[in-house]
Structure formats: structure tokens, C-alpha cells
Amino acid sequence: MSRRRPFRIVALATTAAVAIVLAGNLPAVSQEGTTAKPKAAQAGEKQTTKKKTRKFHGRLPAYYAKVVDDKQRKSIYAIQKEYKPKIDELKAQLAALTKERDEKILAELTPEQREKVAAARKTSQEKRRKTAKTEKQPAAATPSNK
Q: Does the pTM exceed 0.85?
């Protein structure tokens, strides 16, 4: 039994971490119990929810390009096109289940815990933005070795 305890702790910690990260994608709930609207919607701006429909374009798996001939390439693209709607449907189901799970997990937290999670998330986002800005800035000019 002692061998399983670390696994359970790791599994629990991983589940909690995933829940916290994914909870960031949920809409905020005000104290009145209504869902807060995004800032753009509050400002009266129109939000478009339409996704652009693109023509399907298959992609060969890694290392296939130099191995397959044109007939095989077309056959692979046809197979990918056949399975794409099925995979898209499953992805949508997975997204819905993930959202449902995250809502249930969020409901387990007290308002104080939700505030702490939100503060931790905000701190993390600010840290990432700061890191991203420093990485994007060009390096200081240094004398060349000419």
C-alpha cells in the first residue's frame, strides 16, 4: 500500500493543477450568480463567433513525404478527409466534457478559494507577459568581432 501512496499524491496534484489551469477558461461568475460578460460585449462591441471554413488540406505524417508516391499521397489525404469530421466531433465532445468537469471542480471551491486561484492565475499571466516582452526585445547592440 505504501508504494501506491506517492502515485495517488502525484495523481491528485496533477488533477488539481490541470483543473486550476483549465478553470481559467471558464466564464467568471459574479456574486449574484450571473455570468459576467466579456469586456468587448460590455463595451457594446460585436463579437463574431463564426469560424472560417477552410478547404480541407491533408498533411502527410512525419517522414512520409520522401517515401510515398503520388497515388499513395492522394489515398492518405482521402483517408484523413474521411476521418476529419469524426475526429472533430470527438474533440467537441471532449471540450464539452472538460468544460462540465471544470465547472463541477470550480463549484467545489469556496469564494475565498476562488479569489486565491484567480489571484494566482493573474500573477502567473503577468509573469508570462513580462517574460514574453523581454524575449521579444532585440538584444542590446554589442560590438562585432570584425
A: no
